[in-house]
Amino acid sequence: MKKLLTYFLTGAMTLVTSASAIAQTSVMTIHENDAVNLRRFVPKGSYSGITRLSGNTYAVVSDSEQRDGFFKFNIIIDSVTGEIQTVENIGFYSSETTGRDAECVAYNPVRKTIYVGGEKNNSVVEYDVNGLSTGRRSGNLIPGTRSNEGMESLCFDTKNNLLWTISEGTLTSDNNGNHATATNGVANMLRLSAYDVNFKKVREFAYKTDTPENLKKAQHYAMGVSEIAVLDDGRILVLEREAWVPRIKYGAWVVCKLYLVDPSTSKTVSSSVALNNESPFMQKTLLWACNTTMSFNGLNWANYEGMCLGPKLRDGSQTVILISDSQDRYQGILQDWIKTIVIK
């Protein structure tokens, strides 16, 4: 998604009602809070991933940093409404290694370590909370990805002690090489994979994105999963994102949809068997959706690439934090946004 976001896109939030034919009706109550412009609080960035460490402290990665590592943000959220009140950048923590196009980040509270995923080589590096490498790193966890469609997502399942990831787009070996484009109407077939703390794959599931809503030619187009987050009970939130940019830029749009899947009720798949229409895809439930489109009267366009669980509210509701990637507030036009969704 990195290249796509170097173009001028603006717009306003509206709810999207369309959903995949395999999606169920949501049984949860969803409340959406207004997005907050980070310009008021922190320097510009290409914020592509976020994870909660403890209390009000979060690790945030940016895919444009020259060094590998993470920022620490202090985020204060209202304990009743879930609205974001203030955001503070505490600093950047790095072991001085070269940046790997950091797209995702996850926290292991047992080891008290932070995993940073890089799309450059689809690998994960483990750091301590001060940004020093523990020496533990994975190889390529998602071989066979297309350019700019690799590792975008990462989350840690505390209940099962597992690290989860999924590619943004279809692997070259799956679906007979077919993948979503701006005009072909093909849904992406992805592999949601779980790894132990030694980066050994322990299970894998087939996940199908919605069919693209667009069937017009585009100068730039992206369709796939931009982030995942795991709930306390092991179910997983999946953030799908479709972006369409025409040559003239105006009229461009981004659709984001939040789905819920349950690995405990899904069938696993083999890494050695190609995915196709007969594969046992996970049943998914649509929780929330929005559409941002380019216009002449606003600067509200937001490409949400980062997502994590926030604190629980006084009534027991779960907050979910979304953060957007503005490509360093490109040309002073794009903005960094952060918002919360409340699930009950």
Short overview:
Helix content is 0%, strand content 46%. It contains no helices and 23 strands. A hairpin with a 4-residue loop joins strand 6 and strand 7.
Percent helix, as a range, is: under 10%
Q: Strand share of the residues? A: over 45%
Biggest sheet character: 6 strands, mixed
Shape: globular
Number of helices: 0
- Low-pLDDT segments: 1-25
Using the CA coordinates, give the radius of gyration: 18 Å
> Structural class of the secondary elements?
mainly beta
Q: Overall mean pLDDT score?
A: 88
Oligomer: single chain
Number of extended strands: 23
How far is it from the N-terminal to the C-terminal residue, by CA? Answer: 31 Å
Could you give the order of the helices and strands? Answer: EEEEEEEEEEEEEEEEEEEEEEE
Describe this structure in words.
The protein is built from no helices and 23 strands. By secondary structure, it is mostly beta strands. Strands 1, 2, 17, 18, 19 and 20 form a 6-stranded mixed sheet that branches. Strands 3, 4, 21, 22 and 23 form a 5-stranded antiparallel sheet that branches. Strands 5-6-7-8 form a 4-stranded antiparallel sheet, with no helix packed on it. β11 (123-128) and β12 form a beta hairpin.
Features of the shown structure:
five-stranded antiparallel beta sheet, 23 strands, globular, single chain, 344 residues, six-stranded mixed beta sheet, mainly beta
